[in-house]
Design goal:
The complex is a heterodimer.
Chain A (H helix, E strand, L loop, with lengths): L4 H10 L7 E4 L2 H11 L3 E5 L12 E4 L2 H13 L7 E5 L3 E12 L4 E7 L6 H7 L5 E5 L7 H10 L4 H20 L2 E12 L4 E3 L3 E4 L20 H8 L4 E3 L4 E5 L2 H13 L4 E6 L8 H9 L6 E8 L4 H15 L5 E7 L2 H10 L8 H12 L5
Parallel strand pairs in A: 12-13, 12-14, 14-15
Antiparallel strand pairs in A: 1-4, 2-3, 2-4, 5-6, 5-8, 6-7, 8-9, 8-10, 11-13
Chain B lengths: L9 E5 L4 H13 L2 E6 L7 E2 L2 E4 L2 H7 L4 E4 L3 H13 L4 E4 L6 H13 L3 E4 L4 E4 L3 E4 L11 E8 L3 H12 L4 E6 L10 H10 L5 E7 L4 H10 L7 E6 L12 H6 L5 H10 L3 E3 L4 H13 L2
The chains are: A alpha+beta, B alpha/beta.
């Protein structure tokens, strides 16, 4: 789960990292009031999870409360699904630093990255001048020791007073990473102000979903999703992605679903939605189909599975009873294989479905049905 | 031969009395796996499929020969169970658990490497050498997928493995050993680390890897091939070629991998190293034929 910037900064502040004075606003008038309280200039920062907010115009510097109210309204009205603004006091910047901690899967250690040239162009810098990015690794149980933080900072070319101020930032970053079961903690940019102070300009924290049971402070809300459908499916624990094509995908297993998605594209078809009902969800065909059928652009429902524990016969029965209950108006193409597939094929055939067993054949059939070709 | 397990490997089952544990113990045994003992804390004295159950791995390993441990343990207790097996000196461990906390997967991999052990998983179906032995849960009775043969398979996925392996069999081949390294971001064992075993296995003529977008495991395979650590034919299928740009890990992911992780990047790296990359699962069989004919096998 990704935290919003305002949440990440709450965490930073709790660990003693400096963040700009700020307030959050859910309406334009709240934004105007916040601008008054904080004193302009302030920055209005849209609390959305997408990257590149600045380039998309989702971050606005304003110089009066009236302007804050006006710009806030524009942001709320934009097509980017902005529901909350972080109104933040503008910072007098001298330099931008990049710092993050994530995971090196091969080493199985926390990996720090530091560059004294941070900011929005950091990826370009990494591609063009990789020597300007400095790395350090920490064992997750031993932790990041101070000598490692010092070594990283001096290697990055930081000296004197700034080095002394940066050491605790690096160490605190590891504490946050560890305490929040994070996949990523990133500050970009970390501002060095003209007064020589280090302030977190932005904040990203990604919490590992497998650790959600011991990370109860933050939870998934509607604000995390682009559409109501995505949110509803996520609350059901069914992975779902909305597109606007014609084939509604109801598959089991992420790898297989992704492959079917590829095959549809190769055949010139388009995907209405990606839905994965494998693993613990294989008995929930009805709920899965319900979500797929709500898709107004879908012309065909394509079911592809090849499961082991997710038994074929159970999924076939689920699909047939869902059909009887939901009475879909669009045709259904099935390619259900795996444990007890013979019984599954009988169940599907008895319900008038053609139980295909070859994925590519099923994809081609779905694509031709969309084109209005014969069934 | 085969890699990792064969019909003589002495296997312990942790979590043997649970619903999944006992069900798959029966199947593993039926398939020919040599299971010597099982563990469930507090269930000492019971038997599952005629296999004696102990309270701890130490206790079981003191009474029986144990070379490998198969875990049917929930994700939150997996770290504990893996460390218990490592402490008892077991060098081959398979964990199927889906949902192990990320930081614990880091601890598991680190500890395994320090102990010079191999942990396969989590979030996997396990390891199978068809016709010989299995540590995991595979529908080995589906002949058009799990047929004994001379092709090694390594995979990050579950149901896609069935899909692709069926194409290997349809082309007239079978499987020597299939290893599911699992779908977690930090798997206990990575593709490239298994290549030397396939290289040395006289019963493996070629290897198929089933990968997907994200991570760097496929690129590591290409590196290993470039270094000459694996010289047999290698065919890859990678899912996610047309996937929309998925979740991005801030800037860190892009900086750390330096452009690795995309399917295009993986395909280029593998092809440059001499691997054949199939665009569709069906083509895996054709490419295997092509590679093995060139090899004159």
């Amino acid at each position: 789960m990704k935290l919003f910037e305002y949440q990440a900064k709450e965490v930073f502040a709790r660990y003693g990292l400096t963040v700009p004075p700020s307030l959050t606003a859910l309406t334009a008038s709240e934004a105007e009031q916040a601008a008054k309280d904080l004193e302009c200039p302030v920055v209005l920062k849209s609390q959305v999870l997408r990257g590149g907010r600045g380039k998309a115009g989702l971050i606005q510097l304003v110089s009066s409360p009236e302007e804050a109210g006006q710009k806030a309204q524009e942001l709320f009205d934009s097509p980017h699904g902005v529901r909350r603004l972080l109104v933040e006091k503008a910072v007098d910047i001298d330099q931008e630093i990049y710092i993050s901690v994530t995971i090196d899967a091969e080493k199985a250690e926390a990996m720090f990255m530091l560059s004294i040239e941070g900011g929005v162009e950091i990826e370009t810098l990494a591609a063009e001048s990789p020597e300007k990015i400095h790395f350090e690794y920490a064992d997750i149980t031993r932790g990041l020791l101070p000598f490692q933080a010092r070594d990283l900072i001096y290697r990055a070319g930081v000296e004197g007073d700034l080095a002394k101020k940066l050491i605790p930032v690096v160490i605190k970053l590891f504490s946050i990473f560890k305490d929040y079961d994070a996949e990523l903690v990133e500050i970009n940019p970390l501002f060095l102000t003209k007064q020589g102070e280090l302030i977190a300009g932005d904040g990203k924290i990604m919490i590992d979903d497998n650790s959600a049971h011991r990370q109860e402070e933050y939870s998934i809300t509607r604000e995390h999703f682009d559409s109501d459908m995505d949110f509803e499916a996520a609350q059901d624990g069914i992975p779902y992605l909305q597109f606007d094509g014609e084939i509604s995908l109801m598959c089991a297993g992420a790898g297989l679903t992704t492959t079917v998605y590829d095959l549809i594209n190769y055949e010139g078809g388009t995907v209405a939605n990606y839905l994965e009902f494998g693993g613990p969800n294989y008995k929930r065909a009805k709920r899965a189909m319900e979500l797929c059928l709500r898709n107004r652009t879908a012309k065909v429902l394509l079911v592809v599975t090849f499961g082991t524990i997710a038994r074929a016969d159970v999924m076939a029965e689920g699909i047939v009873s869902a059909m009887q209950e939901l009475k879909p108006e669009i045709p259904i193409v099935t390619c259900i294989r795996g444990t007890n597939e013979e019984a599954a094929h009988k169940t599907l055939a008895a319900a008038g479905l053609d139980p295909l067993t070859d994925t590519e054949e099923a994809v081609r059939k779905a694509v031709s049905l969309c084109r209005g070709e014969s069934r | 031969m085969s890699i990792f397990i064969n019909k003589d490997t002495k296997v312990l089952i942790q979590g043997i009395t649970g619903k999944e544990g006992s069900y798959w113990t029966k199947h593993m045994k039926e398939m020919g796996t040599r299971i010597t003992c099982g563990v469930t804390p507090g269930k000492k004295g019971q038997q599952v499929e005629g296999i004696p159950v102990y309270n701890s791995v130490r206790e079981a390993a003191a009474e029986h020969e144990v070379e490998a441990s198969m875990l049917f343990v929930p994700p939150r207790f997996t770290k504990d169970a893996v460390f218990e097996a490592l402490d008892a000196g077991i060098k081959k461990i398979v964990t199927i658990a889906d949902g192990i906390p990320l930081h614990e997967t880091m601890e598991i991999r680190k500890a395994a490497r320090q102990a010079d052990a191999l942990v396969i998983g989590g979030n996997t179906s396990g390891v199978i050498s068809p016709g010989k032995a299995m540590m995991g849960f595979f529908p080995y009775w589906i002949e058009r997928v799990y047929k004994e043969g001379r092709i090694g398979v390594m995979t990050r996925s579950g149901s896609l493995t069935n899909e692709v392996t069926a194409m290997v069999v349809r082309a007239g081949y079978g499987v020597s050993t299939l290893v599911g390294v699992g779908g977690d971001p930090v798997p206990g064992t990575r593709f490239a680390e298994l290549l030397p075993a396939y290289q040395d296995d006289p019963e493996t003529d070629a290897v198929v890897i089933i990968g997907e977008l994200g991570g760097t495991m496929e690129e590591e395979v290409a590196d290993a091939m470039n270094k000459g650590l694996f010289t047999k034919p290698l065919v890859a299928f990678l899912g996610g070629r047309t996937a929309p740009k998925g979740k991005r890990m801030g800037h860190a992911g892009a900086i750390a991998t330096g452009g690795k992780g995309t399917v295009e990047g993986k395909v280029a790296a593998l092809e440059a190293a001499g691997a054949l990359v199939a665009q569709r699962p069906r083509l895996v069989g054709d490419l295997l034929k092509q590679a093995l004919t060139e090899e004159g096998r």
